[in-house]
Amino acid sequence: MQELKERILTEGKVLPGDIIKVDGFLNHRVDCALMMRIADEFRKYFDIDNVDLLLTAEASGIALTAICAACYGKPMVYAKKAKSDNIEGGLFKSEIFSYTYKKKVTLLAAKDWIQPGTRVLVIDDFLARGEALKGLCDIVNQAGAELVGIGCAIEKGFQGGGDRLRAAGVNLKSLAIIEHAEPGKIVFRDDE
Amino acid sequence: MQELKERILTEGKVLPGDIIKVDGFLNHRVDCALMMRIADEFRKYFDIDNVDLLLTAEASGIALTAICAACYGKPMVYAKKAKSDNIEGGLFKSEIFSYTYKKKVTLLAAKDWIQPGTRVLVIDDFLARGEALKGLCDIVNQAGAELVGIGCAIEKGFQGGGDRLRAAGVNLKSLAIIEHAEPGKIVFRDDE
Question: pTM for the whole thing?
Fold first, then answer.
């Protein structure tokens, strides 16, 4: 998606530890008009009429996913990252490693809200090593739901998480795949 | 807002500890079409044309706020609850007590994304003791920004946080104020 790539080039910052900071438009301040255009772009790759539910993980995936869900007229669920008193009863759980927080995190989703057979589109803002997405796919699987696909805004291609998901047969579309990043230089993978 | 009150009555559950669970449509599974109607409802109480930015706190405020921001054509910022490696540089910080997690939490927002003079509408899904909102107001104040008002979906009126904010002169509108809650019985405050 050309507009997204241009925003990454003009506003993104590459920080030590292969962190690509785009918190001015994606995951701290959120350019909600851009998110609506990203939602439109995903329509090219996924048959939204055959999606029942959008699924993401808190916290940074929620804004984009909520806007996509509103645009599509679908409900969403966000998996939570820590057990709070407000989640009772049956839960799907998947343990992942968070490279952002450098610790194990358990993704939780209430069984009530993902029924067997539900056609689920997973959405996330960022794909790096793919840990969060693996956890979300695991939850879809535990629920006996159907994974329609995964839509990501930005993928760090050089960290391999996206290619591992593709190799496993997942219908994954990232709108900007970064192949190489160093301060002052970001290179995207060629689109097909 | 009658529709929201009816959803609370038909789907809400009162749990021990004065917890009102509405995670089937507001803050785990999210009914995004309802969120769009809530966004419309807020328009009755706030002059959206004179708002520059919507502000909320992660994680449960993000979905509603993102959808409001998309409907209004405005950007949003969500304050983060823990320092991650992806936030560098200058931060506004406000320490609050989270009754959900029973510990102190620091709300963080990057100084870059809330400029002095910005007209800020704070949005949240839930208002109980008002700790998160106090923290967000504090951040608006630190930024030298202007608090236009606060819009909440659900307020637990009996916990007093909303009335304290009103007494302090804040333009606060909650769309459903719960005055009394026990299992099987939820009573709303009369609308004006």
Answer: 0.95
